[in-house]
Design brief:
By secondary structure, the chain is mainly alpha-helical. It has a domain of 66 residues. 68% of the residues lie in helices and 3% in strands. It has four helices and two strands. It has a two-stranded antiparallel ribbon with strand order 1-2. The longest helix has 28 residues. The N and C termini lie far apart (66 Å).
């Protein structure tokens, strides 16, 4: 059976973040400047001014660059995690080195194909 002290601690852990969120949102509502204008209210996405129609085609290279960033970012995190795990194991070190070489080849391939150039 849980003691009253531990139950109060768990309730405090549950209510603490909620209370913090309410205080921060309230402070933002009170202290934030409110000066709306047409520029702030306009839709702006990916560096392109919003056209009259939301169905205007967008260059596919925007999403390609974003996907490449996500892929290489996630793989970099995996390399750091593997690097902390190795600690002297030659076979693990070789596997991580091959993985890193494979990532580098993929990066150079995308660079040569022009996949990393930002569309104009």
């Amino acid at each position: 059976m849980a003691s009253a002290e531990s139950l109060l601690f768990v309730i405090g852990l549950a209510l603490g973040p909620i209370l913090f969120l309410v205080v921060m949102l309230g402070a933002n509502a009170i202290l934030a400047p409110k000066r709306p204008n047409d520029i702030k209210s306009s839709a702006y996405e990916c560096g392109i001014e919003q056209a009259s129609s939301p169905w205007k085609p967008v260059n596919i290279r925007f999403s390609t660059v974003a996907l490449l960033f996500v892929i290489f970012d996630a793989e970099t995190v995996l390399l750091f995690a593997a690097g902390t795990r190795i600690r002297g194991s030659v076979t693990d070190g070789l596997a991580v080195a091959l993985f890193g070489a494979f990532l580098t080849l993929g990066l150079f391939y995308e660079w040569k194909k022009g996949g990393l150039k930002w569309p104009a």
